[in-house]
Amino acid sequence: MAKILTVVGATGIQGGSVVAAALKDKIYKVRGITRNVNSDAAKALKAKGVEVVAADVNDVDSIVKAFEGSTAIYALTNFFEPFLTADAEEAIKVEELQGTNLAKAALKTMSLEHYVWSTLPDTKRITDGEIEVPHFAAKSRVNTFIKKHEELAKKTTLFFVASYASNILSPVFKPIEVPAANLNIQLHPVGPSTPHTLLGSPTNIGLFVLAVLHQPSLTLSPSTPAVLAATEILSYAKYLELWGKVAGKRTAYVQTTLGDTEKVWGKWASEIGAMSLFWEKAGSRAWEASGGERTIGRVELGLRVKGEEGANVDAEEGMLVGTEEVWRGMEW
């Protein structure tokens, strides 16, 4: 009987990447979960041989049914969907409920061998209660829920996903053109040396997830508390400098206050600013798991980035795509 990999949010960015990688890998029968099985995106997945099923992450029973028979599950939630129309606290409540529902359904999936939970670190623990980043908060609470249930915890890989290269187009990160100065600037409430951990292309997510699933002796080991999906770490200043080089623009990094950025972007500045302040304070501890253990990354998983020293140019199809390469494929 074929092993089933069930992917939550199969028509989205993360889920779509996992589905695409799994279809190429051909080890699993792929099941995609979506809210609307009649959407064009869902129909496109069906045409590729994906079993598409409907489920609502707000309804545990529907998730239990969708998970039935799964060998492996890739589960995720989206803080920013409720955040579009609600404040941060309400979005946290919605996301925590959804993440807990997914975990509860996984607990009821008797066939389950590996649960990959797309999540983020506990910023309050790492900063001794000083900083809580809203879009990290619910995910870390679900981490705690999972760890309280040993039968699920021993099957779970906490999967930390770094920032997409395309986030350069989002509020707060998109460079601001200042024609009078012939400059493009970024405004952030942190110093220019603050580390910014980058995923590169979202297509990398699927490669990471398949590497996680293929190496359970590593990724389900008690000594591996979490996996970080990232290609590189740049300082905030180097991040902007790299974009300027690719786009052919003069740039300047401007450090300001959180309050000033909130005057420009409102709640988005509060959200992203909290994350930036966390990264500045946490430094090398930013991606710690809940017990303070070291998180493993692409090197331990055997993944290489296209163009890096020692990479085999004849095997680039299975390699990760870094931030610079993504930006070079975009119009500026």
TrEMBL record:
NmrA-like domain span: 2-282
GO CC terms: nucleus
Domain of life assignment: Eukaryota
InterPro entries assigned to the protein according to its UniProt record, in alphabetical order: NAD(P)-bd_dom_sf, NmrA-like, NmrA-like_oxidored
Transmembrane segment boundaries: none
Pfam family, one: NmrA
UniProt similarity note: Belongs to the NmrA-type oxidoreductase family.
PANTHER family: NITROGEN METABOLITE REPRESSION PROTEIN NMRA FAMILY MEMBER, NMRA-LIKE DOMAIN-CONTAINING PROTEIN
The name this protein goes by in its record: NmrA-like family protein-like protein
Origin species: Aulographum hederae CBS 113979
